[in-house]
Design brief:
Blueprint: H1 2-23, H2 29-44, H3 58-84, H4 87-90, H5 97-108, H6 115-130, H7 142-149, H8 151-175, H9 179-201, H10 206-211, H11 213-234, H12 239-246, H13 249-260, H14 266-285
Helix pairs in contact: 1-11, 1-12, 1-13, 2-3, 2-9, 2-11, 3-8, 3-9, 5-8, 6-14, 8-9, 12-14, 13-14
Length: about 290
C-alpha cells in the first residue's frame, strides 16, 4: 500500500503542476501562489477533526515562522518559473534539491552523504546536461548555459536551492509537532504571508478572483491530495523510499507538459529527466 500511496503522491503533485501552468495563463503568479496555499489549507484543515493536536512549543513556532517566510518566496518563484518556460524544462530542476540537501544537511541536522549519495549527485548533473543535449554542437557547455539563461529553469534552480535549506526546517517543525499538523500549519501561515503581497502586486481584483475560481481550486485540491497520500505512505514505510518515488512526479510533469502544452524535445527532456530521477533514487537509498 505504501508504494500505491507514493505513486498517488507523485501523480497529484504532477497534476498540481499542470493545473498551475493552466491557471497562470489566466492569472498572475501572485494570485496563483496564494490560491495554491489557500485552497490546500482549506482541503487539509478538516483533518484536524480526526486527529489530535500535538503539544506545541517555541521550537515549533520558530520553525513555522522561518519556513513560512522562506516557502512564501519559493511558492512565488515556483509559479514564476512555470510561467517563464516549458513545464518539461523547468520542473526537472527540482531534482537538484537533494544535491543542495547533501550540502546543507550535514551543517543543519548533522546528516552526511555516502557513496550512493555522491553518485546520485553526479547523475543529476549529467541528466540536466542531457535536457539540452542537442545544443552540444554549439559548445560542450552550451546545454548548461541554456538552463542558466532561460528564466524558468534558472528560477526553479533557485527554488531547489532554497528548498535544500527549508526542507531541514520542515523536518525540525515535524519533529516538534506531527507531519499532517505541520502540513496544515505551514499552508496556513504561507497563505497569510502571501496575501498582502498578492494585494500589492497582483493585477487582479475581486471580480477576477470569482471568474478564475474554477481554475484555482484544482491547484489546491491536487496539492492537498499529494500531502495526504504522502503522509499515509510515510506512516507505513521508510521516508527516503516514499520521497524518492514522489520525485517521479517530475517525469509525469515532463510527459504531461509535452502532451498537453505541446512542448518540444521529448527525447532529450525525457532521457535527461530519467537519468536525474535515477540520481534522486540513489540519494534516497543513501
Amino acid at each position: 500500500m505504501w508504494f500505491l500511496f507514493s505513486i498517488l503522491t507523485a501523480t497529484f503533485e504532477s497534476l498540481k503542476d499542470v493545473s498551475s501552468k493552466k491557471g497562470i495563463k489566466k492569472a498572475d503568479e501572485y494570485f496563483v501562489s496564494w490560491s495554491l496555499r489557500f485552497f490546500s489549507f482549506l482541503f487539509l484543515a478538516p483533518i484536524l477533526f480526526f486527529t489530535d493536536i500535538p503539544p506545541l512549543g517555541k521550537p515549533f513556532f520558530l520553525a513555522l515562522f522561518t519556513a513560512g517566510l522562506i516557502d512564501s518566496i519559493t511558492t512565488i518563484l515556483y509559479m514564476k518559473a512555470i510561467k517563464g518556460s516549458d513545464l518539461s524544462l523547468s520542473v526537472p530542476m527540482l531534482t537538484f534539491t537533494p544535491i543542495f540537501l547533501l550540502i546543507t544537511s550535514p551543517i543543519m541536522i548533522n546528516e552526511f552523504p555516502n557513496f550512493l549519495g555522491i553518485l546520485g549527485v553526479l547523475l543529476i548533473v549529467l541528466g540536466s546536461y542531457i535536457l539540452n543535449f542537442k545544443e552540444k554542437r554549439r559548445g560542450y557547455l552550451k546545454p548548461f548555459k541554456i538552463l542558466l539563461k532561460e528564466n524558468g529553469p534558472k528560477l526553479m534552480l533557485i527554488v531547489a536551492f532554497i528548498w535544500g535549506i527549508s526542507s531541514n526546517i520542515d523536518k525540525i517543525g515535524i519533529r516538534y509537532s506531527s507531519p499532517i499538523f505541520w502540513a496544515i500549519a505551514i499552508n496556513l501561515i504561507i497563505t497569510c504571508f502571501i496575501f498582502p503581497v498578492m494585494l500589492f502586486k497582483s493585477k487582479y481584483n475581486i471580480n477576477e478572483f470569482k471568474k478564475n475560481l474554477k481554475l484555482m481550486i484544482p491547484i489546491g485540491f491536487f496539492s492537498a491530495l499529494s500531502v495526504i497520500f504522502q503522509m499515509m505512505a510515510i506512516n507505513i514505510a521508510f521516508v527516503p523510499y516514499v520521497i524518492s518515488i514522489k520525485r517521479t512526479s517530475v517525469i509525469i510533469s515532463v510527459i504531461l507538459g509535452i502532451l498537453i502544452f505541446r512542448e518540444r524535445g521529448l527525447k532529450e527532456k525525457l532521457s535527461g529527466t530519467l537519468i536525474m530521477m535515477i540520481g534522486v533514487f540513489l540519494i534516497g537509498l543513501s
